Structures are given as structure tokens and as C-alpha cells.
Amino acid sequence: MALVITQACIGTKATECEKVCPVDCIHPKEGEPGFEEVEQLYIDPWTCINCGACMAVCPVRAIYPEEDVPGPFKMFIEKNADFYRLSLEEFHKKWPVGKSRELLRQWMAKQKAQTGQQQTSAQASS
Ligand code: SF4
Ligand code: SF4
Q1: Which of 45, 48, 81, 88 has CA 20 to 30 A from 3's CA?
Q2: Burial grade of 93 (CB within 10 A; 0-12, 13-18, 19 or more)
Q3: Residues at CB less than 6 angstroms from ligand 1
Q4: Within a domain: residue 114?
């Protein structure tokens, strides 16, 4: 199981994590192709050895073990992997800047609507 970089990294890209990774599987680094364009960094799930060093230094707690990624952030498992299995062009087509935020907003709205429906049903049956 790999670790996954999620929402809180967006706009931060502080790069502490890539400096401590013993297998160099966090990219893009400053100066590498795509660094300026990406909204966050990504972990290569096929190279990560699950050591946890990156998680310990991330100042915004953006990194989770794959099995612990919270519900609204699960899309980041695919997004991290896509950065390594797609070309940069394909990646940006699939994950344009702002898409993760929009998907999160939709997820929250859906949860809120479901909670509202459950509360209405509970009130109706009491
Ligand atoms: S340390 Fe955290 S915020 Fe900085 S690049 Fe890594 S995941 Fe992103
Ligand atoms: S868990 Fe270890 S190997 Fe995996 S990305 Fe973090 S620092 Fe690198």
C-alpha cells in the first residue's frame, strides 16, 4: 500500500515531503517538467515503500496511507496514480486545475442533502 497526497497540498507544494523520501517517488520536484503547472505533488504508488517519512513532515497533514484516506479524498488515490501512468498532457486533461475542489464541493453537497433527507424522514416517522 502506498501513501497518497490529498487536498491540503493544493496551493501549498511546500516540498518538505519529497526531500525526505528515501526512494524519490514524490514528484514533480521544483525544476522538473510540470512543477509550475501542477496544483499539488503526487506519490508514485508503484515505488512508494510505505515508510511514512513524508507523512511525518508534511506541515498541512495532506498525506494519508491509502487505506486511511477519508471518504471525500478517495479520488486522490486515482489522481496520484494518474500522474505517473498518464502523460502530462493526458493528466491535465483528466485533472484540470480546480477539478478536485469541484468534486469535493459536490461530495459535500451530496452528503448534506442525504443528511437532510434522513432528518426529515426521522421527523416524519416520530
Ligand atoms: S509536504 Fe505536504 S504540502 Fe508540502 S508538498 Fe508534500 S504533501 Fe504537499
Ligand atoms: S511513504 Fe516513504 S517511500 Fe512512500 S512517498 Fe512517503 S517518504 Fe516516499
Answers
A1: 88
A2: exposed
A3: 5, 9, 12-17, 40-41, 58, 60, 62-63
A4: no
